[in-house]
Design a protein that fits this description.
Number of helices of chain A: 1
CATH topology of chain A: Jelly Rolls
Strand content of chain A: over 45%
CATH architecture of chain A: Sandwich
Largest sheet of chain A: 8 strands, mixed
Oligomer: homodimer
CATH superfamily of chain A: Jelly Rolls
Largest interface: A-B, 34 and 34 residues
Structural class of chain A: mainly beta
Radius of gyration of chain A: 13 Å
Order of helices and strands of chain A: EHEEEEEEEE
Chain lengths: 119, 119
């Protein structure tokens, strides 16, 4: 058992769009990501995904709307729902999702990470 | 899909030791709890449990040590590990855990909640 300080973990990396695993439980990962710019349209066929904003403002584009998430806000994106995160400035995000989730679903893109590092 | 503001959700209740569900995904719950005082010794036979501190300082007693969690820190307690949370002052906690988890495991206590409200 390890006490995990979220801000200390964020200090360990600067890469954008490269989620890092900070904890695992019940087949799920807790991940941290720094994001900036536009990500790629994708969905996760079998996995719901939780975004919780630690710092900054994240927009998430859906096919029918754009949702804005500010610090201290979270959104659960149900499986199968296409989305595209957009960050005008750097945003720090905590993710909670199944350990077997693929970064960009079935989409292959230069931003796609095949695996997640642990920090 | 609903944007959930954590602090706004905390403003909706004042009860201690009564976790409220604010989101569900992949068979897991995201819950919020306000806690103060001493809870009851218990474990969860089949469920790991994540504590993330939104406000205050939570001590968690284990059979062999006491762990202190401050704001912005999290701890994953593996299934089967006995624990007893203690809060000298009110603490606001976010919990991630399987939806079928029992509040105090197999222990029955006056603080035990048989079900969790949604807010």
């Amino acid at each position: 058992m390890e006490v995990v300080n979220i801000n200390q973990k964020f200090s360990l990396f600067n890469e954008h769009w490269s989620p890092k695993i900070i904890g695992q439980l019940n087949g799920q990962d807790v991940k941290l990501a720094k994001v900036k710019g536009e990500f790629v349209w994708h969905d996760h066929k079998n996995e719901d995904e939780l975004f919780y904003i630690i710092k900054g403002t994240l927009k998430i584009e859906f096919r029918d709307k754009i949702v804005t998430l500010n610090e201290g806000e979270m959104l659960i994106i149900p499986k199968g729902v296409e989305h595209k995160p957009i960050a005008d400035e750097e945003v720090w995000v905590l993710l909670f999702e199944p350990s077997n989730i693929k970064h960009t679903g079935e989409v292959k893109h230069e931003l796609t990470k095949e695996r997640y590092g642990k920090i």
